[in-house]
C-alpha cells in the first residue's frame, strides 16, 4: 500500500513541475568527475579564451543553419495486387505489427521431431540416429559400423561413438514400497 501512495505523490502535478523546471534560466549541471574538473581547471589557466569561445554562440554558424531546408517524403509504395492472398513482401514495409505476416493455417505436426528437408553429410537427425541404433542392435553382423558409416555418410569414428554412447529414449518406472527412496538405475543396452 505504501508503494502505491508513494508513486501517487511522485506523479502529482508532474507536468506543471516539469514546465517550471524547464522555464528556469539556468540549469544546474551534473557533477564532474574529479579528473575532468582538474583538466578543465588546467585548460582555464592555460587558455581562458578557448573556454570563452566555446560558451558563446557563433552568429555565422547560426546563419548557415537558418538557411538549411530539409524536405522529407515517404518512398513510393507498391499497391497490392488484386488477389485473395496479399503479397507478403509488399506488406512487409507497411505493416506496423511484427511477425507473423503469414496468417495461414499451420500444418499439424505428424512426428515427434521436426525433420529438415536437407541434411548435410556427417549429420544425423534424431529419427535417423534411432534407426541406425535399431539396425545395429537387431543384426550387428549385417549392419557393422563401417556399413552404417557409409550408408549414413558419417566418419567411421563418429559412427562408432554414436553406437557406443548414444541411447534411445526409454521409460523408467518408479518402484513403490520400502525401497522407493532409492533410485533405480538401469543399464543402457
Can you describe this structure?
This protein has 189 residues and is mainly alpha-helical. Helices cover 46% and strands 0% of the residues. It contains 9 helices and no strands. Helix 3 packs across helix 4 (48-55) and helix 8 (145-151) packs across helix 9 (156-165).
Give the key terms:
single chain; 46% helix; 189 residues; mainly alpha
Give a quick account of the main beta sheet: strands, pairing sense, barrel closure: none
Helix content: 40-55%
Radius of gyration: 37 Å
Strand fraction? under 5%
How many angstroms does the end-to-end distance come to? 61 Å
Which runs of at least 5 residues are low in confidence (pLDDT < 50)?
none
Count of DSSP-assigned helices = 9
Total strand segments = 0
Could you say which overall geometry the principal axes of the C-alpha atoms support? elongated
What value does the average pLDDT take?
A: 78
Structural classification: mainly alpha
**SSE ordering:** HHHHHHHHH
Summary of the model, kept short:
The protein has 9 helices and no strands.
Structural topology:
Blueprint: H1 2-11, H2 14-23, H3 34-46, H4 48-55, H5 59-66, H6 88-94, H7 126-138, H8 145-151, H9 156-165
Helix pairs in contact: 3-4, 8-9
Amino acid at each position: 500500500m505504501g508503494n502505491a501512495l508513494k508513486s501517487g505523490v511522485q506523479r502529482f502535478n508532474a507536468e506543471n513541475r516539469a514546465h517550471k523546471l524547464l522555464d528556469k534560466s539556468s540549469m544546474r549541471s551534473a557533477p564532474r568527475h574529479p579528473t575532468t574538473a582538474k583538466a578543465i581547471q588546467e585548460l582555464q589557466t592555460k587558455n581562458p579564451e578557448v573556454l570563452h569561445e566555446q560558451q558563446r554562440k557563433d552568429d555565422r554558424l547560426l546563419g548557415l543553419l537558418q538557411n538549411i531546408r530539409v524536405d522529407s517524403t515517404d518512398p513510393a509504395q507498391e499497391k497490392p495486387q488484386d488477389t485473395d492472398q496479399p503479397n507478403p513482401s509488399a506488406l512487409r514495409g507497411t505493416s506496423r505489427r511484427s511477425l507473423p505476416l503469414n496468417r495461414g493455417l499451420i500444418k499439424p505436426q505428424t512426428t515427434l521431431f521436426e525433420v529438415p528437408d536437407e541434411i548435410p553429410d556427417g549429420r544425423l537427425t534424431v529419427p535417423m540416429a534411432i534407426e541406425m541404433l535399431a539396425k545395429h542392435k537387431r543384426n550387428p553382423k549385417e549392419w557393422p559400423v563401417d556399413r552404417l558409416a557409409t550408408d549414413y555418410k558419417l566418419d567411421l569414428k563418429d559412427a562408432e561413438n554414436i553406437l557406443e554412447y548414444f541411447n534411445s529414449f526409454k521409460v523408467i518406472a518408479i518402484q513403490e514400497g520400502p525401497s522407493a527412496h532409492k533410485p533405480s538405475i538401469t543399464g543402457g543396452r
